[in-house]
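Model the whole thing, not chain by chain.
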Amino acid sequence: MKITVVGTGYVGLVSGACLADVGNDVLCLDVDPAKIRILEDGGIPIHEPGLLEIVRRNVDAGRLFFTTDAEYAARHGTVQFIAVGTPPDEDGSADLKYVLAAARNIGKHMDDYRVVVNKSTVPVGTGDRVREAIVAELAAREAGFPFSVVSNPEFLKEGAAVDDFMRPDRIIVGAGDERAIDLMRELYGPFQRNREKMLVMDVRSAELTKYAANAMLATRISFMNELANLAETLGADIELVRQGIGSDPRIGWHFLYAGCGYGGSCFPKDVKALINTGNERGHDLLILNAVEAANEAQKLRLVDKVVARFGEDLSGRHFGLWGLAFKPNTDDMRDAPSRIIVAELLRRGATVVAYDPVAMDEARRIFGDEPRLAYAERPMEVLEGADALIIVTEWKEFRSPDFIRIKQMLRHAVVFDGRNMYEPSVMARVGLEYYGIGRR
Ligand code: NAD
């Protein structure tokens, strides 16, 4: 099948590469010439495990191409995926300017039947706006090509995106006409050979499904964080509580980890966008407002602990920090708790040396020339001369460090662990003063 993917970010590039990998002829379009140059030079502009290999394999096989030429892209694919960003606008609503620009471009240049498939996370009703944008462009050209609009929200997780796309739990397809549904079934056939995973519904329900999923996951995290903070005041241990409730199949194990807040390119913006949708309809979404407020406070929870230990004024203090990405296995720092934590430590006068396996370039771009923030090439280097170690992202390589050396290298042998990576009893045995989230 001939496919165009508009946007070569985390979702677009993974989708394009995986669709090419099962034999399709895929053209990826981006407005950012720097990204296309990297791709044409045989690289990828993001860190995503396994992606580089798939991209190279399919480029070599002649099934995957890249372009900045919008007209060429609109004429290539019968299926046109829109996978561009939907960042939050000032009021928290999803900014649709990239989605609608992509739709207008398709309308302007399409020369045959097109299925326009929206993979970006968009508010309910966007399918109608995409349709209107295409109709307007076609009318301006006095062209009458038929087209369908489909909602096909993406559920891949950064850090495991290739695997998620190749082996999805479910494929949500919101569509109103059989021709489009048949095409989507054909397209996703190779990803659901063992069992039917495609759930077909109307466009609006599909659009809302994506927000519902992310809002539910964010709710679980904020709920556990709130209980963790309470557990600290009660002398209870949130890890034991987690095990106690996760073993109930009605609750399950996923997304029950307390920590220093959720971040990333999806949960924060999607929760805000859903709250905004509610407001537009006169529904105050009480639970989600609380989920968001709890998360904002939680991002500063580690700094609160640092302040409780070292005082309000941190000038002259120096901290080693492990983890900048919003979660392991990605270089993405959008809305990452590390951004708030580092900024607050610096604001209080401290200096910081940070280490992250892949996100340090991104951190340099975000924090710029900040003289009180430095980076280390290896995790143990951040400990040199540091008053304490602060852990923000649970990278695998931090799971079992040399605690004796940590104790020897730190000036105060204090560890603030925003991801509950270690057992307080082990830390006590080693002689490290340990502060987790909700741990006894
Ligand atoms: P991203 O910012 O990584 O990539 C978006 C890309 O689109 C950029 O490269 C940008 O240059 C390009 N672009 C913007 N306008 C364009 C246009 N008119 N034509 C061509 N290219 C254009 O974004 P992302 O993380 O891939 O997210 C894309 C969408 O998917 C968002 O709505 C997001 O909420 C959703 N989503 C993201 C994830 C995730 O884990 N990142 C998961 C599921 C859904």
